[in-house]
């Protein structure tokens, strides 16, 4: 059985991204729409996966490529390798998920010492032919043969210097012929063999290089950062060449159907006359703004804007486009639904609803919780004193302050040390990816809004100012100058504003974003007097709230947190951690509790703690009104509240040295700390085990809760309390505790003369609890999945140790794509959640189910919890809006 690995552009559509890659699929789509696309074909991602697994191409690939190439030759009436009139092609990478600038592309494949003469004759331009040839040698040498790019750039720089010209367009045919000779020499030197003259051999090697680029280090880093699977592989698109470097009526450029930074409608983009391919993105020459193309080639400009309208109408979204003009003739080389900033995403989505292009559900689908998070970041204070030192392009929004670094490595080292940095480069290239990820902001002195730095930063949501041309970035001496004056040296602080393109010396203070203020309930969007960005956010939040089934609660330990959570739209508290109430000045009482010699002493300590706990609960219950509040009884091991064993030992030893006995209390505490010391506290005496071991502890907490409830009721409130028992693994534990709690309830009800009530429930955070959920649900009235501990106990690794330790290795080796503590491991830990939910509900169909781990605020996890049928998620107050939005999106 033979498989089809090669698809001509006229077969295929935009929906076949997985097979054809984004580039191939959209070229096919444009071909079907009748737009001017140079003929070509795409080799499928299947072929790449075959190659990755088998180490060689599928046997039928070569013949299929030859057939498809033959078709292109017939189409164009020109043959590959024909010395008189050669067909040239580009060999382009294209994965299903866009990975801008991460994979390889080789242009002008098919040129050699002979065909270059044919190209010169046919085009009438020797200069153009030599320029194309030197580009092939350069790209082939670098990407296919792995030769250091600098070796070629040096030759270009030297030649320009010798000729006394600033740009490569000023080099003559003669100059370029010299460059070609030198490039060939470099290749022969570096590889030990001359540049392959056989076009088919060039093609074969280029295809292989594109396959290989899938697993280049930078591509792996990018996929890890973007959580893209390493398994998918890239397609390879072979496209007949058109030439933007032919003459002065030729150009190459990039266009957007809307401003990707703000979402505003209009024509945006950059172009260069007499240039090819990557010149625009590489920031080699300063680009011109797209509307000026109308001055160079008016008919082409009109045609292009027409096509842009067609594409936006067809894709019903912002499109980004690569085009080339060859002697006044327009060619479309790429389109895709364009990356955009978070603000643009919200604005575009609601604008398209207003324009009747999409409905509100679709608009909600097109924004994300991650984007909303970005909009909540603070911005620079306009009123603060600040010294503007340069102005560049607002490439990717945000306010970043950090120490200046000039190379990726420094950014990465500083990140490990927790130091914020601004990566400053003349222009970035794909090798800078690691540094861009590590830095807090990126600043370049060259390149437009479509330069590498801008495109990658937008994709990563990283603050970026590019093309700050007044700055002279001296990477060698690690200094930035402007008009001769030193602006900053390595290690100096710089503030960059990616929303305005401004660069400031030193550290500029920040103020909250307007979106954050709106989400915190400080701005009323119904009033109408808000920015259009806040109006868009408000509108989509309303859609999400109307659509979602999951309720959103917050984790809050104090009345202030609870109030903040309420303002952000929390519909209850899913987790009050009572251990936070045992810290600070109250530590001493915990020590007393541990030191108590008998029941009587212990009871006395508990009675001292009682009123403090009660007051804490009153504040929280008041803040939450009638919304449910889930209070978890004491969870962590006691020694966490006691002094550090080493510190205390030293203190006792010191005073003994001085001949004194030291305080008696210190010695007693030390003995207790030693007694309580555990090898694996995480798996030791904590949670319900503590409640069962220290008589009266959980009873005291329950009494405090009930008395608080009574207090709030008397004041006219209607609190809704849920008491949650942590770390349960057996129904017997729960039964014992329930007996104690019920007794306390009866007592307190008798004392206060009010009908107090609470629900009693349990955390499901141990695998055994999930497996025995049917039994546990006989007693528990609700479950809250504690996915942090459930992750630790399911994987058998501790969060702190993993994240500080071998986790990096696991990520690098692709064993884990993301931390299971950030996003729930749906197949393992998630399976236990599913089992727990199912079995619990089998016993009690009305069992309330929630989740209170970090995962409650993570978009992917929220979608998962929606699908397994939980009732609510609980997350930190700050994440509540994100959770509301994603809970809405989960239903779509
Ligand atoms: P990337 O994914 O990095 O954008 P591309 O495959 O799109 O890589 O190609 C890099 C550059 O070369 C782009 O500017 C593209 O427009 C240009 N290019 C690709 N194929 C051709 C072609 N057949 N003719 C002219 N220019 C091309
Ligand atoms: Mg491209
Ligand atoms: Mg826990």
Automatic annotation (TrEMBL):
Residues 421-501 form the PEP-utilising enzyme mobile domain. Residues 19-55, 61-286, 302-345 form the Pyruvate phosphate dikinase AMP/ATP-binding domain. It is an enzyme of class 2 (transferase). It catalyses: pyruvate + phosphate + ATP = phosphoenolpyruvate + AMP + diphosphate + H(+). InterPro entries: ATP_grasp_subdomain_1 (IPR013815), PEP-util_enz_mobile_dom (IPR008279), PEP_util_AS (IPR018274), PEP_util_C (IPR000121), Phosphohistidine_dom_sf (IPR036637), PPDK_AMP/ATP-bd (IPR002192), Pyruvate_phosphate_dikinase (IPR010121), Pyrv/PenolPyrv_kinase-like_dom (IPR015813). The keyword Nucleotidyltransferase does not apply. GO terms for molecular function: pyruvate, phosphate dikinase activity. Its EC number is 2.7.9.1. SUPFAM superfamilies: Glutathione synthetase ATP-binding domain-like, Phosphoenolpyruvate/pyruvate domain, Phosphohistidine domain. Residues 535-887 form the PEP-utilising enzyme C-terminal domain. Its cofactor is Mg(2+). Pfam families: PEP-utilizers (PF00391), PEP-utilizers_C (PF02896), PPDK_N (PF01326). Keywords: ATP-binding, Kinase, Magnesium, Metal-binding, Nucleotide-binding, Pyruvate, Transferase. NCBIfam families: PRK05878.1, pyru_phos_dikin. Belongs to the PEP-utilizing enzyme family. This is Pyruvate, phosphate dikinase.
